[in-house]
Design a protein that fits this description.
The protein has about 150 residues and is an alpha+beta fold. It has one domain: Alpha-D-Glucose-1,6-Bisphosphate, Chain A, domain 4 (2-Layer Sandwich), CATH 3.30.530. About 25% of the residues lie in helices and about 35% in strands. It has four helices and seven strands. It has a seven-stranded antiparallel β-sheet, with helices on one face. A hairpin with a 3-residue loop joins strand 4 and strand 5 (about 80-85). The longest helix has 17 residues, at about 135-150. The protein is globular, with a radius of gyration of 15 Å. It starts with 7 loop residues before the first strand and ends with a helix.
Length: about 150
């Protein structure tokens, strides 16, 4: 692994919508393919809205593989993070985190982080390295477009 590449990347932006509206789009896996800037998510079954740490939700990737996502951090309306894995397997060591900070007047600062510092699966390193702040920003921009239209 190159020591020059950051293994934790973050992008942030202000969205003209309240934190509750934005959080609902993130915490409901059926909404995630709508705003995924990596174009990696195809679908998720209904009824998996995350309500706390320890929850597990499943998503289907565009290539057809299923990922189980274990929620490791959760604060309703403010914070959610998860570790993806193949079904029945331990997490591969990469984490997706969303943090929302209400700014008042219906505005929210949203930060999206991808942390692959503990990634152990050599097959995922190329994709991890390609997940840059610009890719995270694409998800933020799509999320903003949806949230601001509601």
């Amino acid at each position: 692994m190159s020591e020059h590449l950051p293994t934790v990347v973050t992008s942030s932006r202000e969205i003209s919508a309240d934190a509750e509206t934005i959080f609902e789009l993130i915490a409901d896996p059926t909404q995630q393919p709508r705003w995924d800037g990596n174009d990696n998510l195809a679908e998720a079954a209904a009824g998996q809205r995350v309500r706390g740490a320890g929850a597990v939700f499943a998503t289907t990737l565009t290539m057809g593989a299923v990922r189980q996502n274990r929620v490791t951090e959760f604060e309703e309306g403010r914070l959610i993070a998860w570790l993806p894995s193949e079904p029945g397997q331990p997490p591969a060591g990469h984490l997706w985190r969303w943090e929302l900070e209400p700014l008042g007047n219906g505005r929210t600062l949203v930060s999206h982080t991808y942390d692959w510092s503990a990634l152990t699966d050599e097959n995922r390193l190329v994709r991890a390295r390609a997940t840059t702040a610009d890719r995270l920003r694409a998800s933020l921009d799509r999320l903003a477009a949806i949230a601001e239209s509601l």
